[in-house]
Write a structure and sequence with these properties.
The structure holds two protein chains of two kinds.
Chain A (H helix, E strand, L loop, with lengths): L7 E5 H12 L3 E4 L7 H9 L6 E4 L3 H13 L4 E6 H6 L1 H10 L5 E7 L14 H6 L3 E2 L4 H18 L3 E6 H4 L2 E5 L16 H4 L4 H25 L5 E3 L4 E6 H14 L4 E5 L1 E3 L3 H7 L5 E5 L5 H12 L5 E3 L14 H11 L31 H15 L9 E2 L24 H11 L7 E5 H17 L4 E7 L28 H8 L3 E5 L4 H13 L3 E7 L3 H7 L3 E5 L9 H6 L4 E4 L2 E4 L9 H4 L6 E6 L1
Parallel strand pairs in A: 2-3, 2-4, 4-5, 5-7, 6-7, 10-11, 10-13, 13-14, 15-16, 16-17, 17-19, 18-19
Antiparallel strand pairs in A: 1-8, 6-12, 9-11, 20-23, 21-22
Chain B lengths: L18 E8 L4 H14 L3 E5 L10 E9 L12 E6 L2 H7 L3 E10 L6 H5 L6 H11 L1 E5 L1 H7 L6 H13 L4 H11 L2 H23 L2
Parallel strand pairs in B: 1-4, 4-5, 5-6
Antiparallel strand pairs in B: 1-3, 2-3
Helix pairs in contact in B: 1-7, 2-4, 5-6, 5-8, 6-8
Classes of the chains: A alpha/beta, B alpha/beta.
């Protein structure tokens, strides 16, 4: 990624965006980890940047956006990265930013996830354009991702508006060849020019005036985009049958058109908001049938239909509304081929290579489990036993989960959490159950990073309203699920920056909970005991389950390994049923432990009724 | 342990069409490193490349499937059932799961490693190595590689992915060895580089020997 201008290298879409930030001279880059957006900042940390550039994770997307916005109104070039639900977290300041605008370029990366592969919803953030009235651009490849990132900064400065760089997983996580451009020196603040009507949203007449200004800026956005961006809205081919597409979907269209060897007009949009009406009017001129190929919502389809209506065109439009393209899931060449051939008589309905799979051996599913030695597993095992010891059945105590690795406990055999909703929702939703009259105990489970991100205010709410609940903070000292990013508890950050650790327990104490206990979940009996006591106790109780992420710990400490004594193992599966640890497996009537995977937490040995699991020695 | 040995494959002809490679693994085995090495080497060799994968720590110990597409000009990062020219497998269950991707006459290069999923253990329905290998050889031209053993002998038990990469190159000759070595040096951290390279070399020898069996 540090290679010089003019070199062509293989880069992942997210690395290409990171390179784009550097080529554009961004000096403040922040965000919150979230698949598929995380690698932008991770790769900048990995490769290292000059001390003139601030590259750090923020506590959440809203704070990240506000940091970047503050930098941009002071004239710096700033960027902020987030996954789609993160954009919802940051929505309040994003929408207001359109009124004040910016001085330095501000680019907001929002990564949507058709599929979905790793996101709670298939939300379509192209609508942010209409909602926030901010320009939205989208790339279809790693090369375009880099180039469009650079021009997004120029467009942002020209329009004095933040620009949303909207991507999808198949661009963020795709590796492709990228021709590098020159890296510009970072553009830092040139000073903050005081302008109260512009930056104070408390004056309603100011807001009305700024809204008029905003609409004028949007009126010229298409012209500015055309003038500045090398990644253009394009028309390829010709004919009366036209395909309108954008982003990752373009790739499938391009290849299907080539495979079928047909003459169609392919219209690709890179500017999504404001809809490039001048371009589209010309590009769609003379079309009789238009197929809109896009992922997530029928966004372009509605844009095209409204444009055609205004122009009195009678062209037929096909897409998600007509059922030609599915409303859910991600696209593929196969789906695009089917949509096109069904509308184009005379084309083969399926390519010859699409064969039915032959009679096949069925293999067992392998959903991602918690890792061997994961401290969350020990915590959940203790929780489930603690619930029984407190005199309840498992089905009687709702466990409100939150977002992070610990949500993997929804899989068998643990099936420990009942909900996983949005960042921080565990505590607030548990409170909802109680204030609605739920009589028994309730438990909320939230990770350390999620607690910092959005769990502190719910905890204040629960304490303030005196709602009985047990809050478990699963503190593994890292943002594990997205690739081990820093939390506010770190003293040295990925960039090398020295930081002041802000500790979970200090916050919890300051909030004024009724009871706080910190237990290492590897001390399983102590943990079971804590659950048993705290479930029965009234008040807001916080149990911090504190042990480092096993993947990180395995890198720094020597491992104890366990093995199964064959003669003692009866194949009862108690170890597997209690823990669900993926280092354990059943074969030929016995359980064995994969020496490559065991990290020596000892949880299985603790629950073997026949004492058939013992330490195999240290490594 | 060899399945049906592929008929002699000469050096891959000048890439007149896109070559599709599926990589099946269990999260943590290095499937993504393998796909990245192929992508880097392909670009060094002057090709266009696209990979499609799902990333994130949450994939650890779960099924991981990567797509790699190499050609003169590639757009899509994924491909469909029956379109893979090669299946590179780091684990047997995942390789069988990915088999429908392989085209008729496609070649599977698969490590003989078995990781039994929790779901199978809970049902006492663990798949067996021999039946998985039989399935692979029945439904494809499969080369089953003792990749873990070769990697361990090379001094790096975690380099089975590099062994499979070597076997693939030995059989296909798809990319240049120079580019692959450069790619490996980019994706493997310094202290593991020497043994990873050795694992690749041993895989390469293995692949060449398989290729030249009459």
């Amino acid at each position: 990624m540090k290679a010089p201008e003019g070199v062509r290298i293989a880069l992942m879409g997210n690395e290409a965006i990171a390179r784009g930030f550097l080529e554009a001279g961004a000096s403040v880059i922040t965000g919150y980890p979230g698949t598929p957006s995380s690698e932008v900042i991770t790769s900048l940390h990995e490769y290292g940047v000059s001390s003139e550039i601030f590259v750090e994770w923020a506590i959440n997307e809203r704070v990240a956006f506000e940091i970047a916005y503050g930098a941009a109104i002071c004239g710096a070039r700033a960027a902020v990265t987030m996954k789609a639900p993160g954009a919802s977290v940051a929505l309040d300041p994003i929408v207001s930013s359109a009124y004040g605008g910016v001085e330095g370029g501000l680019v907001v990366l929002v990564a949507d996830d058709p599929g979905p592969h790793t996101t709670q919803t298939e939300q379509d953030d192209r609508w942010l354009g209409f909602l926030a009235k901010l320009p939205v651009v989208t790339p279809s490849s790693p090369q375009e991702a880099k180039d469009l990132t650079v021009s997004a900064f120029d467009i942002s400065e020209e329009l004095k508006l933040p620009v949303i760089l909207r991507t999808t997983t198949r661009v963020n996580h795709t590796v492709g060849e990228v021709l590098l451009g020159p890296v510009r020196p970072p553009k830092r603040t040139a000073g903050f020019v005081k302008d109260i009507p512009r930056f104070v949203r408390a004056g309603m007449s100011w807001n009305l005036e700024r809204h008029r200004w905003l609409n004028k800026q949007l009126d010229i956005a298409e012209d500015v985009f055309d003038r500045i961006s090398p990644v253009r809205n394009t028309v390829e081919g010709s004919g009366r049958f036209c395909v309108v597409t954008e982003g990752a979907a373009y790739n499938y269209v391009r290849e299907v058109v080539d495979e079928l060897g047909i003459e169609v007009r392919v219209v690709k949009l890179s500017l999504l908001f404001p809809p490039p009406r001048k371009f589209l009017t010309e590009a769609l001129d003379g079309c009789s049938d238009i197929l809109v190929v896009e992922e997530l919502d029928p966004y372009l389809e509605l844009v095209v239909k409204s444009l055609l209506k205004d122009r009195g065109s009678t062209a037929r439009v096909y897409g998600k509304v007509s059922g030609s393209i599915p409303l859910e899931g991600e696209l593929s060449r196969g789906l695009v081929r089917r949509a096109m051939t069904s509308l184009l008589p005379g084309t083969p309905s399926s390519a010859p290579q699409e064969v039915q799979p032959r009679q096949a051996l069925k293999v067992p599913p392998r959903p991602p489990p918690m890792c061997p030695g994961c401290p969350h597993r020990s915590m959940y095992v203790a929780m489930l036993i603690g619930i029984s010891r407190a005199g309840y059945k498992r089905g009687e105590v709702p466990v409100f989960g939150d977002i992070g690795c610990y949500a993997l406990a929804s899989q068998p055999p643990l099936e420990a959490i009942w909900t996983e909703h949005s960042m921080g929702a565990s505590i607030s939703m548990a409170m909802g159950a109680k204030v609605a009259g739920f009589r028994g105990p309730v438990i909320a489970v939230i990770g350390d990073s999620t607690f910092y991100h959005a769990g502190i205010q719910p905890l204040i709410e629960a304490v303030h309203k005196r709602v009985d609940m047990l809050v478990v903070i699963a503190d593994n000292s890292v943002v594990a699920m997205t690739g081990h990013q820093s939390t506010p508890a770190w003293s040295t950050l990925e960039s090398g920056r020295k930081a002041r650790p802000v500790i979970v327990e200090d916050i919890v104490r300051a909030v004024g909970v009724d009871y706080l206990e910190v237990v290492d979940p590897y001390d399983i009996d102590k943990m079971i005991n804590a659950f048993e006591r705290l479930i029965k106790q009234p008040g807001v109780k916080v149990l911090v389950s504190k042990h480092p992420c096993a993947l990180l710990e395995a890198r720094s400490r020597s491992l104890r390994r366990y093995r199964v004594i064959d003669e003692k193992c009866t194949g009862c599966l108690a170890c597997i049923k209690v823990t669900g640890c993926p280092a354990l497996f059943y074969e030929n009537g016995k359980v064995s432990i994969s020496a490559d995977d065991c990290v020596g937490c000892g949880l299985c040995a603790r629950f073997c009724p026949y004492k058939a699991i013992e330490v195999a020695g240290n490594e | 342990m060899l399945g049906s040995v592929p008929t002699r494959l000469s050096r891959w002809p000048v890439m007149s069409r896109i070559v599709n490679i599926a990589i099946a693994s269990v999260g943590g085995q290095g499937g993504l490193t393998l796909s990245r090495a192929l992508a880097i080497a392909a670009v060094l060799d002057g090709y266009s490349v696209r990979t499609g994968e799902t990333l994130g720590m949450s994939q650890r110990f779960g099924s991981v499937l990567s797509y790699v597409r190499i050609g003169k000009r590639v757009f899509s990062p994924t491909f469909s059932t029956g379109e893979a020219d090669f299946l590179l497998g780091l684990e047997l269950v995942e390789s069988v799961r990915a088999l429908p991707l392989l085209r008729d006459g496609g070649v599977a290069v698969v490590a003989d490693t078995l990781k039994i999923p929790i779901s199978a253990s809970l049902e006492k329905m663990s798949p067996r190595v021999d039946e998985l290998i039989r399935e692979l050889t029945r439904r494809s031209r499969a080369v089953i590689v003792p990749a873990s053993k070769i990697a361990r002998d090379a001094g790096n038990p975690r380099a089975a992915n590099m062994v499979v990469l070597g076997v693939f190159q030995g059989i296909s000759g798809l990319l240049t060895e120079t580019s692959l070595r450069k790619a490996i040096s980019e994706v493997v951290p310094g202290k593991w580089l020497e043994t990873s390279m050795k694992a690749f070399d041993e895989g390469l020898k293995y692949g060449v020997s398989v290729r030249t069996v009459p």
